[in-house]
Design brief:
Length: 206
């Protein structure tokens, strides 16, 4: 009896193997866009609010208090964290073993780092002028961000992620030295805008 289902050609087999490899990679490795776009938008909004509140010459550019700017930043970061966590959980649901544990510990590190920033800043900032209070909150938060992105690069062996963390650290340090207004401007443009640009590049590359 003749076989009505001929064996697939080598080209078809290669195509199937490539498709399965791509699907497996999407399951095992986080989508890099999720680590950049939500946070870039959050920092662009939050630190733009701080910049309008401080100005560069000590005069506000908009009637926004530092506490209102902080509320915008914290709210935007909460949304970004929720979006990233949702997609990470969704992607890692079919995965078991070291990858899941690694992702969970990394997520807990973010929570612990930001919680410690809140405790430290709440203890110190009442003794400082309003502008310096915002600088402590922002500078400490971005320090945690820089270190955890560098750690994430080490965990997933991602040099781009490590270099992004190094970039955040450099911008943060320069902004702290220049003062609240400059820190807000540099962080909004070079970190927030930079993260959005990296997300667009990663999306196009994918």
């Amino acid at each position: 009896m003749a076989d009505n289902n001929p064996a697939p050609s080598p080209e078809e087999m290669l195509r199937v193997i490539e498709e399965q490899s791509v699907a497996t990679a999407k399951m095992l490795f986080p989508n890099p866009v999720l680590f950049y776009l939500p946070w870039g938008v959050a920092w662009l909004l939050g630190f733009t609010a701080f910049f309008l509140s401080y100005g560069l010459g000590g005069r506000p550019y908009a009637p926004i208090s530092p506490m209102q700017a902080l509320a915008v930043l914290m709210g935007a970061q909460l949304v970004a964290g929720a979006v990233t966590t949702f997609w990470l959980v969704r992607m890692n649901r079919p995965v078991r073993g070291d990858s899941t544990a690694r992702g969970a510990m990394y997520g807990y590190s973010w929570f612990a780092g930001m919680l410690l920033v809140a405790v430290l800043a709440s203890r110190i900032t009442p003794m400082l002028p309003p502008a310096e209070r915002g600088l402590v909150w922002a500078g400490a938060s971005m320090t945690v961000v820089a270190l955890l992105y560098m750690a994430g690069g080490a965990i997933w062996l991602s040099w781009p992620m490590f270099f992004v963390g190094s970039w955040v650290a450099g911008v943060n340090a320069l902004g702290i030295l220049l003062g609240p207004g400059w820190h807000a401007l540099l962080t909004a443009v070079l970190v927030g805008g930079g993260f959005i640009a990296v997300a667009a590049f990663q999306r196009r590359r994918a």
